[in-house]
Amino acid sequence: MPEPDRNHGVDNLASADGQGAPQPGSERPRKIIHIDMDAFYASVEQRDNPDLRGKPVAVGGSRERGVVAAASYEARKFGVRSAMPSVTARRKCPDLIFAKPRFDVYKEVSLQIREIFAEHTPIVEPLSLDEAYLDVTENRQGIASATEIAEQIRAKIRAETQLTASAGVSYNKFLAKLASDHRKPDGLFVITPEMGSSFVEALSVERFHGVGPATAAKMNRLGIFTALDLRAKDETFLRQQFGKAGPHFYCICRGIDHRPVRADRVRKSVGAENTFSRDLTTLDDMRAELGALVDKVWRYCESTGVRARTVTLKVKFADFQIITRSRSSIAPIPDSATLTSMSTELLAGQFPMPKGVRLLGVSLSSLSAESENDDRQMIFEL
Which of 127, 132, 242, 300 suits a disulfide with 246, CB 3.0-4.6 Å? Predict the structure, then answer.
């Protein structure tokens, strides 16, 4: 195993939380770690099946309508990426091996990793099963160096799970996440306050937190392609163009991010979706498929005690166009029959469909009484 990358000499993050060295009277700088497991799903499959080690592996469905959920680094060398149609992935890598997802196993390993985080700090914000932010400004072992904590966490993850993790250390969440990606896989990188502003200046705007495809396209139309372009615009201009997000963009391109690590985030939604082996065209066929999706979502609600007020129907057509339709109730949805009725009404309201349907999905949002802490949207694939 190669020696992991480190950039020693800056491990205490001794200064600042915004733009270089702290000013007199400024608040104490935070010490943030972002841990990102390396090719998590695929690595678990390679760990548990020695025949897959060193080979290009994709976790997901191998059928014609399947989608890649995760790819090993051996597969990524061929251009295979998550969310890629399986047929495209196989075309890029003819020797690609598909492994069926085992989400129960991935969740079990994720819980092991979170127990390791908890040995150091209670302030952990999971982003998904394979990544999280940790605030170690104050930590349970009284270790002054955030980099030392990150090294200990990575070493224990390797020892207990036989998997590798990359870590980024910095004084805010945005930079910590950039740092964890800087020397993947099995890497560790630190961005100090003195490095922050210069580190982001050449980044494309697509790399910034809060900039999605539509916002990036608008920025590009305004001649904004990089952090330096964004810095050339004053806050008033950015507020005029991007509303409440304007001040955030003004700060983020300067390496400033005041978002706290939040340990109390709750799941925003839960859903199930299925891609069909053939395009569906009739309401009866779609109703039958919808029933299985509703059953899966409601089983999750029953097992966790969570309830919701909003149902969303997702339809992906044969040409990959996606539409969503939602309906909310005043009180939480009480049972599966009500969920079935609301979902079916949403579906029937879209008929006649303009084209064949390749995927249907049902999700619940406006959740309450959730027993788990996780702010991602959980989607079950059938």
Answer: 242
